[in-house]
Amino acid sequence: MGALGHPARSPPGRLGTGLGAHRGPPVRLGTGLGDWPALVRALKKIDFQGPISFHSEYSGEVVDTVVDLCRIDVRFFENFWNATD
Description:
Layout: H1 36-45, H2 63-83
């Protein structure tokens, strides 16, 4: 189960059809359907102390731009982490 009580991935043989299935082109962090405040509240509720990792996909961008966009993604998540009780 995922942090919010939902399956973490699609069932075997049904790739891309389960909860959380990707159904469109990648979008920048904060512009998609993710409920970031709810995720952060759930992590804090269980007193999560581990590392946090997320995948930033910025194909077609030059390397310096990708690095800048990834830094923006980290700040985006940190803002929720620091603001959510």
